[in-house]
Amino acid sequence: MSKAPETPQDVAAAPADAEVTDTGLASKVLQAGNGSEKPGSRDTVEVHYSGWTVDGKLFDSSEERGEKISFPLNGVIPGWTEGLQHMVVGEKRRFWIPAELAYGETPSRPGAPSGNLTFDVELFSIEKAPDAPETPKEMTAPDDAEKTATGLASKVLEEGDGGEKPGLSDIVATHFTGWLMDGTLLESTVLNGKPAQFKLDQVSIKGWVEGLQLMTKGEKRRFWIPEALGFGENPPPGAPKGNLVFDFELLDFKAEPKVAEPIAAPDDVAATPDDALKTDSGLASKILTEGTGNSRPVATDEVLVHYTGWTTDGKMFDSSVARGEPISFPLNGVIKGWTEGVQLMVEGEKRRFWIPGNLAYGDKPSRSGAPSGTLVFDVELIKIGG
């Protein structure tokens, strides 16, 4: 542990000579850089930083920990995403970030600082993101697209092996890229360089569940997903509203391995304990093992986890631990309780969640085989980014 950095004298407000952007972000160069290239919004950067509230309280510092941190710029607060794109390698800059570009006046994330924040950031390196996949020319389904009774439309881009198709309970490995209807890139495993792997019956995006069951191994297919089969009219935090377009490549799939011995239910499976952390949505959780990481995922991140789930009567209904294989998935593509809950965690952390029915599969699930009512999950966050 290094010595805590000194609080800047101008921590309370940006000085008159600070640069101010149209969004209200203010900054001042403290140390000139030695590079010429600036990062883009999807690039990964390595930095040292320290952050203070406007009353001078240090709330986080990689400098104090003595360990630099790296992250993709599109996975942090808006003030950082915008601000670091003004910097070059070797530069150190002070930012005065208004609340709306930070965590807000009333942060939804437990432990996050509220209001305006001040950061000192030093940029050490830039790792360029791969080129984004080309946006489809047809953002609405063409006349020759296949259409199902639910309204899902699709078109084969590249034939697969023509063999079997995955079933609802199978584990699939896939590359995908998604766009909003205006052509904005939503998410891409191709850019991350690592495919997603998930059980089909755990995905909340109905268009994915239905669509992937149409495909054979090796096939590439484009899907036009109506809002009702996407994230719905009330999407989880970070998820888009409206119709979506996704390109999928089905790399592999396999049946869920049979579990010989179920994992015993926790003693507190039947009801949330009094000392559990509770959020406004009704989600409750309790840390079982402290993590070793510093950053938390955002809703658009892909995560790698181990988990076990029980109903409140103690019946185990699913477990990656029992299968001996962790699973990765985009965080905004699963049940709302997971989308919200895993964002509270850091890498290495293990946490127990009590998820009410409305944040899980509902009290009367429409999906065959899905457990009903309140569910209890033990989740270990192994890695952010798959």
Task: Describe the protein in words.
- This protein has 386 residues and is mainly beta.
- The chain folds into three domains: 109 residues, Chitinase A, domain 3 (Roll), CATH 3.10.50.40; 109 residues, Chitinase A, domain 3, CATH 3.10.50; 108 residues, Chitinase A, domain 3 (Roll).
- Helix content is 8%, strand content 33%.
- The chain is built from six helices and 21 strands.
- The strands form three sheets. Strands 1, 2, 3, 4, 5, 6 and 7 form a seven-stranded antiparallel sheet that branches. Strands 8, 9, 10, 11, 12, 13 and 14 form a seven-stranded antiparallel sheet that branches.
How do the helices and strands line up, and which of them pair or pack?
Blueprint: E1 19-20, E2 26-31, E3 44-53, E4 58-61, H1 62-65, E5 69-72, H2 78-83, E6 92-97, E7 117-127, E8 146-147, E9 153-158, E10 171-180, E11 185-188, H3 189-192, E12 196-199, H4 206-212, E13 220-225, E14 244-254, E15 277-278, E16 284-289, E17 302-311, E18 316-319, H5 320-323, E19 327-330, H6 336-342, E20 350-355, E21 375-384
Antiparallel strand pairs: 1-2, 2-6, 3-4, 3-5, 3-7, 6-7, 8-9, 9-13, 10-11, 10-12, 10-14, 13-14, 15-16, 16-20, 17-18, 17-19, 17-21, 20-21
What would the keywords be for this entry?
386 residues, Chitinase A, domain 3, seven-stranded antiparallel sheet, 8% helix
Number of helices: 6
What's the helical proportion of residues?
under 10%
In the CATH scheme, the class of the largest domain would be Alpha Beta
**Shape verdict:** globular
Largest sheet: 7 strands, antiparallel
**Strand portion:** 25-35%
CATH topology of the largest domain: Chitinase A, domain 3
| Proper CATH architecture of the largest domain | Roll
Q: How far apart, in Å, are the first and last alpha carbons? A: 29 Å
Low-confidence stretches are none
Mean pLDDT level: 91
Label the structural class: mainly beta
Rg is: 22 Å
> How many domains is the backbone divided into?
3
> Using DSSP, what is the number of strands?
21
Written as H for each helix and E for each strand, in order along the chain, the element string is EEEEHEHEEEEEEHEHEEEEEEHEHEE
